Amino acid sequence: MTPKINFHELxxxxxAERAKLHQRTETDxxxxxxxxxxxxxxxxxxxxxxxxxxxxxxxxxxxxxxEIAATEADFAAAEKSLDPKVREAMEFAxxxxxxxHQDQMPEEMWLHEIRPGAFAGDRSRPIPSVACYVPRxxxxxxxxxxxxxxxxxxxxxxxxxxxxxxGPNGKIDDATLVAARMAGVSKVFKAGGAQGIAAVAYxxxxxxxxxxxxxxxxxxxAAAKRLVSHVLDTGSxxxxxxxIIFADDSINGALAGLDLLIESEHGPDSSAYxxxxxxxxxxxxxxxxxxxxxxxxxxxxxFSSTVLGGPIGGIVLARDEEDAIAFCNEYxxxxxxxxxxxxxxxxxxxxxxxxxxxxxxxxxxxxxYVIGPNHVLPTSGWARTASxxxxxxxxxxxxxxxxxxxGYPDLAKHAHALATYEGFDGHANAVSELRNKxxxxxxx
Length: 444
Hints:
Blueprint: E1 7-9, H1 15-20, H2 30-46, H3 48-58, H4 72-81, H5 84-104, E2 109-115, E3 118-126, E4 129-133, H6 142-155, E5 159-164, H7 174-182, E6 187-190, H8 193-202, E7 213-214, H9 219-227, E8 242-247, H10 253-264, E9 271-276, H11 279-293, H12 298-308, E10 313-317, H13 321-331, E11 333-339, H14 344-347, E12 353-358, H15 364-369, E13 395-403, H16 408-422, H17 425-430, H18 433-439
Parallel strand pairs: 1-10, 4-5, 4-7, 5-6, 8-9, 8-11, 9-10, 11-12
Antiparallel strand pairs: 2-3, 3-13
């Protein structure tokens, strides 16, 4: 029996029903937070022993407290066992990722003359340390290691750590270890889920506390990030995968159906919609998807069909072009793929998305792996205000100012007036005749 695929006609939905289509699995993390809090408390109290226990309990991995860190032997074994074709593909991807993020780097410092004798600008400096979270629950993701650790390295972060769940054999995924080395990272730890986030937030006997954590994860990871956000910069929210395939009447609907399966196969907690105002495109996609499922593994079909037949997935038929664009902007998807013979015709009206992939030759797969822009993207609607992971996530800016003796008097006069109005005597005195006397400046 072919699984059902939702077919939503926006013209027939109430505003409440339409709003339900925008929900995500991360909309309410309160239930996860209740379960995550004791995990965090245990890691704070027990350190590596708790990490090993949770690895055995949650990951079904035979890990001992003395085995949390990857060893040189682990790296060597991974290099030896990795399929050469996979390594070649990773090197190809790493080059693109590094080149993109190198081009993204801002100038180290700029200083402009804002007013005569008054200069101001910014100076960029790397953050001191970061942990890159590489998930593993529904597969292994060396691409995440590349996408997070390479820009950290490009930005100049001196202390980069990778945390990732161990596999059932108690080991770290071989490709992830090789990816770490490609990215210049030697510290990789068996610490997944909420316990991994707690470990980098508070530190353990093996894992050093860091300043920031970056990387996508499950609602458990998202909940843990929220609970430790007062001691750790948790970056932009990056949860379960989500995509909108925006398609106009110029394309074959079978292509839209093919690309709809890319993100829907990530897991049952993903979100995936085809949005079009062409009934022909919608019906062609609907007809093609079951045949595509026949060419996928049972596990991936299970994930994809759960998403496309569940409450936050399927095919959306909009009233018209404007309605389709409005839906996309309301949703603010992690990935937004624009299928059209003329994709740039829509770009100016598509406001909110983690990434926008344009045209029939730019499927999300390419964005996920080899084009270069980062695939760690804001989810759960955060694309309205947040951006893809970039070198800027690993940099901080110092505002720089310099005023000359010629520029000082005019600025001081106006600053004195504002400080006096706001009642700050010390502020006002610092730019008054008191300073003029010390610096031997002419009286105002």
